[in-house]
UniProtKB/TrEMBL annotation:
This is protein-glutamate methylesterase. InterPro entries: CheB-like, CheB_C, CheY-like_superfamily, Sig_transdc_resp-reg_Me-estase, Sig_transdc_resp-reg_receiver. It is an enzyme of class 3 (hydrolase). Coiled coil: none annotated. The keyword Hydrolase applies. Its EC number is 3.1.1.61.
Length: 366
């Protein structure tokens, strides 16, 4: 298998400089695909091919010494494969984007949704042999230019041991739950499935979900979540009514909020975190309408989305639960909630579901 290739001038490159060429890495086990993709990106002066790799493991090794802006990643490869390696690649990528280029990356497929939920920025189906030119080349180059340079603000800080986080847990309210609001990002699809598997089939309260995913994938995600949760799951629309045990999911191009009724109101204004959709508006509207009877759950994800909304919810008497580090694909959003002193529980998704269930009975926080 071909190892990752990089020249000495690529090693330990400086942070992005405006107007320089966009640096790319191609990760594909097919020599033909690597060759064709290389020719496509090198045909445009906007790009510089910094490295190629035949496996995800080789790519991760190369990223220790090569800095790139975007990684073109195949999903079906020997070893750990592209899909399962996305979190490790992102951890090593210093803010680089991951763009899936794979024959299994058709819009709406389970693999594509999983890849995007794990943090991939975009996905493009790889055509068959001899069909790489023409429209595919144009679309690929256009999307790579749209992604642009690596986002150094997404570079995770050096992780701290769990023992360093000394934020105390809050007491959990005892009021019966009238609204459950769940937010997730990278790794969230798996975490949501685990959560709903452990949640009682009927909790008697509506459920809101904000999962960071692009809009085209939301209908398929909703269908998959409905199966996993054994409940009705719908992509949110303006004016939609909240019903007990119905799951309403934020669309990929709007925040999910509520207005008196309570009914759904979609909001496309800029959010504090910069995410679209964002957890913050969802939690804030839940706080306004439901106060101490609302429970928020913050699952795995990068960044701090949800902290501002969680603070508002706590101020109104609501409760916030967060996923623990060991079960998270990326312990960013849950950690931020914990460090802000807003969490009343820190545990795996199945245990979080059981904590929610405890509010259906005697209201204890065990």
């Amino acid at each position: 298998m071909e190892r990752a290739l990089a020249t000495s001038r690529d090693r330990h490159s400086a942070p992005p400089v405006k107007n320089r060429r966009i640096r790319l890495m191609i990760v594909d086990d097919s020599m033909i695909a690597r060759s064709v993709l290389s020719r496509i990106v090198e045909s445009d002066d906007s790009f510089e091919l910094a490295a190629v790799a035949g496996t995800a493991e080789d790519a991760i090794e190369a990223l220790q010494s090569v800095r790139v802006d975007t990684i073109l990643l195949d999903l079906e490869m020997p070893g750990a494969g592209g899909l399962r390696s996305i979190p490790r690649i992102l951890d090593s990528a210093c803010g680089a984007h991951v763009m899936i280029v794979s024959s299994s990356a058709d819009e709406g497929t389970e693999e594509t949704i999983a890849a995007l939920a794990m943090g991939a920025a975009d996905a493009l189906p790889k055509p068959g042999t001899g069909r790489f030119n023409g429209r595919f080349s144009e679309v690929l180059l256009s999307r790579l230019k749209a992604l642009g340079y690596a986002d150094v603000s997404r570079t995770p800080a050096a992780p701290l041991p769990v023992s360093v986080v000394h934020a105390p847990l809050r007491a959990m309210a005892a009021d019966p739950i009238k609204l459950l609001a769940i937010g997730a990002s990278t790794g969230g699809i798996h975490a949501l499935n685990t959560f709903f598997e452990a949640l009682p089939k009927r909790i008697g309260a509506p459920i809101l979900v904000t999962q960071h995913l692009p809009a085209p994938f939301m209908p398929v995600f909703a269908r998959q979540l409905a199966i996993a949760a054994k409940r009705e799951a719908l992509v949110a629309e303006d004016g939609m009514m909240l019903l007990p045990d119905r799951i309403i999911i934020a669309p990929g191009d709007a925040h999910l909020t509520l207005r008196d009724g309570p009914v759904v109101r979609l909001d496309r204004s800029a959010s504090y975190s910069g995410c679209m959709p964002s957890l913050d508006p969802m939690f804030q509207s839940a706080a306004t309408l439901f106060g101490p009877t609302a429970v928020a759950v913050v699952l795995t994800g990068m960044g701090r989305d949800g902290v501002q909304g969680a603070a508002r919810l706590v101020a109104e008497g609501g409760s916030v639960l967060a996923q623990d580090e060991s079960s998270s694909a990326v312990w960013g959003m849950p950690r931020a909630v914990l460090e802000a002193g807003l969490a009343c529980g820190l545990m795996s998704p199945d245990k979080l579901a059981r904590r929610v269930a405890s509010r259906l009975g005697d209201g204890s926080c065990k």
